[in-house]
Design a protein that fits this description.
Number of helices: 15
Order of helices and strands: HHHHHHHHHHHHHHH
Largest sheet: none
Number of strands: 0
Keywords: Membrane, Transmembrane, Transmembrane helix
Organism: Loktanella salsilacus
Distance between the termini: 47 Å
Pfam families: OpgC_C (PF10129)
Shape: globular
Structural class: mainly alpha
Radius of gyration: 23 Å
InterPro entries: UCP028704_OpgC
Strand content: under 5%
Protein name: OpgC protein
Length: 405
């Protein structure tokens, strides 16, 4: 009997190609830089300590928040793009791809509420114990006492945000939007990027933002503008999953971005140059240039901040020794903290607030600003180690459970 002709191998969907592949070694740069960003956030959230001088915000315009958002976008692109690609290839339901992101956003929401309640409790308790009524007015805390009903409504809808506990709300919103951004990013990455840039520009120029409640103004990190850096991270993650770069290496572009980083550093630290550049930006503003182009506004993710973090990310991604450093055993603590990002972020936020209170209560104890950030980082590292040990123990415990007879 003659054999039937062999069937041609099925062609992979363009959206599927390279995204759904066997697991590959985890890029050490992602966890290492995310861990570094979280460590810097903890340090910067204790204002007045000397370690602030060596965080990323002192080398240019952006700070650890921008680094955290772009690294989180990259990690999300790597982790969640396969689920979206399966749906685009007709191999699974859309919900299977969306659900992990929305479950994660719910987890972040719960953490945000818990952190807000802890912050209110910490400063309220400190106001009574240390006889400092000012603790009830710091960081937008006065609203919970002066307008309690509205604040209790604003808290669960993320409209009432406490200072230094206001990073996660925007990340929650962006993670809810992430499935749609990934669908667009897998199908038409450059069109997606163009749309994201347009939204960033218009929202910044028109000062669109989500309003806070109670009170006036908008969210501290405006999701309508910060979506751009998160979207860029997602697109990088999608390409990284395919072992590709979003922006290929170019000697000319590398030189340009490195030159910009040097210029930004000089702008920050050479008074004469800084005065000239700030004056020129003010002149452009008076001529009608949008505020998000000619300012350093963090809420709107102004252009100098955006360009700085993108240039920094590009330069670091082009240097092979950066990967080797991030993979080195001495960088293991950073990778560990980055791998347990939510735990470290939440615990670091609480420890930073405790550090603020202690430094205000004991301003004459000169060693506190030196020691408290270090203790905070060490506690976060220990917590990450405990969590990692618990995670490793779970599979072993499951393997020991006898199968039902």
């Amino acid at each position: 009997m003659a054999r039937s002709p062999a069937r041609p191998k099925a062609q992979l969907s363009p959206a599927r190609q390279g995204l759904i592949a066997p697991s590959r070694p985890r890029d050490p740069r992602i966890d290492a830089f995310r861990g570094l960003a979280l460590m810097m956030i903890l340090i910067d959230h204790m204002p007045g300590n000397p370690w602030e001088e060596i965080t990323v915000r002192n080398i240019g315009f952006s700070d650890a928040a921008e680094a955290f958002f772009i690294m989180s976008g990259i990690a999300a692109g790597i982790a969640y793009s396969p689920g979206i690609a399966r749906w685009l290839a007709g191999e699974s339901r859309l919900w299977d791809g969306m659900a992990p992101m929305w479950r994660r956003s719910w987890t972040l929401y719960v953490v945000q509420i818990v952190l807000s309640v802890i912050a209110i409790g910490l400063f309220s308790w400190s106001a009574g114990v240390f006889y400092r009524s000012a603790f009830r007015e710091m960081h937008n805390l006065a609203a919970i006492y002066d307008n309690t009903g509205a604040a209790l409504i604003g808290l669960p809808i993320l409209g009432y945000q406490i200072g230094y506990v206001n990073i996660l709300p925007s990340y929650i919103v962006l993670l809810i939007a992430a499935p749609f951004l990934l669908i667009a990013g897998v199908r038409a990455p450059w069109l997606t990027l163009a749309g994201s840039v347009a939204l960033w520009f218009v929202a910044g120029a028109m000062r669109w933002n989500i309003p806070i409640y109670p009170g006036n103004g908008g969210w501290f990190l405006n999701p309508l503008t910060w979506q751009l850096i998160f979207t860029i991270g997602l697109l990088i993650g999608i390409r990284h999953r395919r072992d590709e770069r979003l922006v290929p290496y170019s000697k000319a572009l590398f030189a340009l971005t490195l030159g910009f980083l040097i210029f930004a550093f000089a702008w920050r630290h050479v008074p004469e140059l800084g005065a000239i550049m700030n004056h020129k930006m003010a002149q452009l503003g008076r001529l009608g240039a949008p505020g998000n182009i000619v300012s350093h506004n963090k809420t709107m993710l102004a252009l100098p901040r955006l360009l700085h973090i993108l240039a920094l990310a590009y330069v670091l991604s082009c240097l092979p020794f950066v990967t080797r450093i991030c993979a080195h055993r001495y960088a293991a603590p950073l990778r560990l903290m980055g791998g347990h990002g939510l735990l470290v972020f939440g615990l670091g936020t609480i420890l930073a607030l405790v550090g603020q209170i202690l430094m205000i209560v004991e301003p004459r104890v000169t060693w506190l600003p030196w020691v408290l950030p270090v203790i905070g980082v060490l506690i976060c590292y220990i917590a990450a180690r405990v969590a990692d040990s618990a995670r490793s123990a779970k599979p072993a415990a499951k393997a020991k459970v006898p199968a039902p007879q």
